[in-house]
Every structure is written in structure tokens, then in C-alpha cells.
């Protein structure tokens, strides 16, 4: 059986130009195995503009790892649900139970 790989990515971010504070993150999660793939896309807009808070990271110092940490926190239990749904979708493609007959 093929191993299923889950890949989370930051696709886009919206920031305030004056202070670089990120107010929206568009992200995706992709599940893939040999020849098949499933994807889920979302946006997280729960960030409030307060660059004076301790721990503020300037825009030019952000990494995908940091931003995905924000996304995971915002998603909470939904992260595991997304991963399970995508894994099941790919497993179904790898092990179909029905077929087209023409």
C-alpha cells in the first residue's frame, strides 16, 4: 500500500503595510500518494492588529513554520478532522470499491 503524505502550506497572506501585521492567512492541506491526491483550502482571519504585543514577529522574519503554527492554533480540532478526511479520500482512490462499466 502506498504511503499517504500530508503537506500543509501557506498560500497567501494579507498584511497591514504600515506595521507588517498579518491579518489573514490562506492555507492548504494536501494528501497525496502515488498517482492520487486530495486537497483542502481555507483562510484564517482571526488575527488582530496589535504589533505592540510581546512576541510580535515582523513580517520579513515570518517563516512558513511560524505561520502554520498560527493556523493550527486557529483550527484546533479541525486540523485533525481535515487530515483524516483527506487521508480517507486518498485511501478511497487507492482502494476503490466501485468501478465504471461502459
Write structural notes for this entry.
This protein is α+β, with helices and mostly antiparallel strands. Helix content is 28%, strand content 31%. It is built from two helices and three strands. The protein has helices at residues 64-75, 78-94, and strands spanning 5-15, 22-33, 36-44. The chain has a three-stranded antiparallel beta sheet, with helices on one face. A hairpin with a 6-residue loop joins strand 1 and strand 2 (22-33). It is elongated, with a radius of gyration of 18 Å. It starts with a strand and ends in an 8-residue tail after the last helix.
User: What best-fitting shape do the alpha-carbon axes yield?
Assistant: elongated
- Give unreliable regions as ranges: none
Q: Taking all residues together, what is the mean pLDDT?
A: 89
Spatial sequence of strands, sheet with the most strands: 1-2-3
Largest sheet: 3 strands, antiparallel
Question: What oligomeric assembly is this protein in?
Answer: single chain
The percent range for helix content is: 25-40%
First and last CA, distance: 28 Å
Provide a compact summary of the structure.
With 102 residues, this protein is α+β, with helices and mostly antiparallel strands. The chain is 28% helix and 31% strand. It is built from 2 helices and 3 strands; from the N terminus they run E-E-E-H-H.
Amino acid at each position: 500500500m502506498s504511503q499517504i503524505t500530508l503537506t500543509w502550506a501557506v498560500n497567501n497572506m494579507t498584511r497591514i503595510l504600515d506595521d507588517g501585521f498579518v491579518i489573514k492567512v490562506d492555507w492548504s492541506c494536501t494528501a497525496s500518494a502515488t498517482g492520487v491526491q486530495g486537497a483542502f483550502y481555507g483562510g484564517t482571519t482571526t488575527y488582530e492588529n496589535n504589533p505592540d504585543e510581546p512576541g510580535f514577529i515582523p513580517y520579513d522574519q515570518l517563516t512558513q513554520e511560524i505561520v502554520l503554527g498560527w493556523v493550527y492554533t486557529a483550527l484546533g480540532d479541525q486540523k485533525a478532522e481535515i487530515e483524516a478526511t483527506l487521508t480517507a479520500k486518498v485511501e478511497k482512490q487507492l482502494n476503490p470499491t466501485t468501478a465504471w462499466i461502459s
